[in-house]
Design goal:
The protein is mainly alpha-helical. The chain is built from eleven helices and no strands. Helix 6 crosses helix 11 and helix 7 crosses helix 8 (about 125-135). The chain starts with a helix and ends with a helix. About 55% of the residues lie in helices and about 0% in strands.
Length: about 180
């Protein structure tokens, strides 16, 4: 959806100007591309970097850079749970913010070294390449505050894709108080 949204923003009609094959299982797209099934592919990491390392492709653009801050990860809890357990929500949010603070204060090499144990199947050089790419693209915000602009962008993308029939009010769905406290 994000890819198609970006294409439309640049005057390209995904339905008529390009042929997008969505029949390939997402976990198999890099392999299909490497076997010449398509001229371009949309990949998450480490797929994109692996294609480059194997000499089978090049990263030519970043959907994250071209789309703006799309909230790819958000955490949800029932209102009743947040009201009954604010200390749990705040502790969880504080821990996530601590990670964001670490990313802002360290080099890609330092970040890669810290996260490497979580990605045993990926070598240190590849992890460093990926982290450097994300770092250079300003992928990570300084805080966890789910901004209204990002919420609206997400709805624009969903609406444009025909997946959202009615927009939801930001104030009714998003609580920023825990992220705001954590950012202080």
């Amino acid at each position: 959806m994000v890819f198609e949204y970006i294409l439309k923003q640049h005057g390209i009609d995904p339905a008529n100007d390009v042929n997008i094959d969505q029949s390939i299982d997402f976990g198999s797209t890099a392999a299909a591309f490497a076997e010449n099934q398509g001229d371009f592919t949309v990949e998450f990491e480490p797929g994109a970097t692996t294609l480059e390392k194997e000499g089978k492709g090049y990263v030519v653009a970043s959907l994250g850079t071209d789309s703006g801050y799309v909230p790819y990860t958000a955490f949800s809890a029932k209102k009743s749970y947040m009201e009954d357990h604010p200390e749990v929500i705040q502790g969880f949010t504080n821990a996530l913010q601590k990670g964001m603070d670490y990313v802002q204060a360290h080099t890609p090499e330092e970040i890669a070294a810290i996260i490497a144990p979580q990605f045993k199947e990926t070598d240190q050089e590849t992890i460093t390449t990926i982290v450097t790419r994300y770092y250079d693209q300003d992928t990570w915000k300084e805080n966890l505050i789910f901004e209204e602009d990002s919420f609206n962008l997400l709805q624009d993308i969903l609406e444009e894709a025909g997946e959202l029939s009615e927009r939801a009010p930001y104030k009714d769905l998003v609580t920023t108080e825990f992220a705001e406290k954590a950012a202080k």
